[in-house]
């Protein structure tokens, strides 16, 4: 019992230290899991277009030019998002960060998305993505809107504490006998059951059932945040071997042909026939390769095809598929989909949503338990003090 009392103290104080951050991560995580499903519902006016009868899409270089003119030359476009669906718009992103920014507002200098009708070149929306709702949710989840220099560190350490809380929680939950186990596996509430008991059961029982999923979500979050965690997991997956990353590739600057988004898109759709949306980088200088990420909208991201092209010749330099990765690279590629539950499709996202909701509830129910015990101790101390005064 002294061991469990020590674990309880550690659990309580770590919970108080990280509770608010865990609550925020849980609430934002619920939304984060379904961003891909929610955006088309709320942003139909910018993501979808009416398909004219017999009309053909404009060339991509024309669409890009119209987007650049709309946003202004002071905001150079950096990424094209090109869905192949006939009723989908094309969008371009431009952003700039300030490494010395101490909050999200100062770190993210600007971030815009320009949505364009691919049939007539009409600008559907110039979105200030810096403060767009879903992007704000993502950055609240990643850095509490305090930027990577401060907020991301707070989040990362809170996640580490949360992992310790999950482990210590299962130690505290572990029953001493079968009778106690039954009480901790299901709710046995009666009409006379007090809220204090209900709150205790909500914390212990829901925490137990969500523990494994939350542990996976927390660890995959740390993989995203810490390269050493990612490298360690890849090292283990590769059987204790460190496999060097492939050498970087560059475009041939002796080639005088201009960058052609159309030619690269044409070849990329041939190389990745299962792709339904293509993300194509717009090079910032003459030697940078063009990065292409071809995903299927109804499949997890890890199944996407990643390619690099010479920007002048529109020739493919590298192509990476999930099947061609080593074990460590596969684990790393699947990490994000595991984190948001997408690795199991819609059921996985629902599990991630419910687990995140439980995670948000744990600091609340845990604080109520701590507060009740604290008040109980204070009340007992006062009663003992009064009794001693009466005896005196």
Descriptive tags:
392 residues, alpha+beta, eight-stranded antiparallel beta sheet, 8 strands
CATH architecture of the domain at 244-318: Roll
Secondary structure: number of strands: 8
Task: Give the SSE order as H and E letters.
Answer: HHHHEEHEEHHHHHHEEEEHH
- Multimerization status: single chain
Mean pLDDT: 93
State the end-to-end distance. 35 Å
Helical/strand content category: alpha+beta
* Total count of helical runs of at least 4 residues: 13
What do these coordinates show?
By secondary structure, this protein is α+β, with helices and mostly antiparallel strands. It has a domain at 244-318: Nuclear Transport Factor 2, Chain: A (Roll). The protein contains 13 helices and 8 strands. The protein has an 8-stranded antiparallel beta sheet with strand order 4-3-2-1-5-6-7-8. A hairpin with a 6-residue loop joins strand 7 (305-309) and strand 8 (316-320). The longest helix has 47 residues, at 345-391. The chain is elongated and about 95 Å long. It starts with a helix and ends with a helix. The model has no long low-confidence stretch (mean pLDDT 93).
């Amino acid at each position: 019992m002294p061991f469990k009392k020590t674990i309880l103290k550690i659990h309580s104080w770590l919970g108080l230290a990280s509770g608010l951050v865990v609550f925020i991560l849980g609430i934002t995580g619920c939304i984060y899991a379904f961003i891909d499903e929610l955006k088309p519902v709320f942003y139909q006016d910018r993501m979808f277009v009416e398909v004219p009868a017999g009309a053909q899409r404009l060339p991509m270089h024309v669409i890009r030019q119209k987007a650049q003119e709309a946003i202004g030359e002071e905001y150079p476009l950096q990424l094209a998002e090109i869905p192949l669906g006939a009723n989908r718009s094309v969008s371009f992103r431009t952003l700039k960060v300030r490494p010395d920014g101490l909050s999200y507002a100062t770190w993210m200098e600007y971030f815009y998305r320009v949505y364009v009708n691919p049939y007539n070149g009409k600008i559907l929306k110039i979105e200030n993505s810096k403060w767009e709702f879903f992007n704000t949710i993502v950055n609240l989840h990643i850095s509490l809107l305090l930027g990577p220099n401060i907020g991301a560190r707070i989040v990362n350490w809170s996640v580490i504490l949360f992992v310790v809380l999950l482990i210590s929680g299962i130690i505290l939950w572990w029953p001493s006998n079968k009778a106690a186990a039954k009480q901790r596996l299901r709710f046995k509430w009666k009409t006379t059951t007090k809220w204090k008991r209900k709150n205790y059961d909500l914390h212990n029982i829901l925490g137990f059932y969500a523990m494994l999923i939350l542990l996976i979500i927390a660890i995959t979050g740390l993989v995203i945040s810490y390269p050493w965690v990612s490298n360690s997991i890849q090292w283990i997956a590769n059987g204790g071997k460190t496999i060097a990353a492939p050498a970087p590739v560059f475009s041939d600057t002796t080639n005088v042909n201009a960058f052609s988004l159309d030619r690269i898109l044409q070849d990329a759709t041939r190389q990745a026939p299962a792709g339904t949306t293509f993300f194509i980088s717009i090079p910032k200088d003459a030697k940078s390769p063009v990065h292409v990420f071809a995903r299927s909208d109804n499949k997890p991201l890890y199944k996407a095809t990643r390619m690099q092209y010479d920007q002048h010749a529109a020739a493919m330099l590298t192509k990476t598929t999930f099947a061609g990765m080593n074990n460590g690279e596969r684990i790393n590629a699947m990490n994000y989909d595991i984190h948001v539950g997408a690795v199991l499709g819609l059921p996985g996202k629902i599990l991630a949503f419910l687990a995140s909701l439980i995670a948000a509830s744990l600091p609340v129910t845990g604080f109520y338990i701590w507060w009740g015990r604290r008040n109980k101790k204070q009340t007992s101390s006062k009663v003992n003090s009064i009794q001693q005064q009466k005896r005196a």
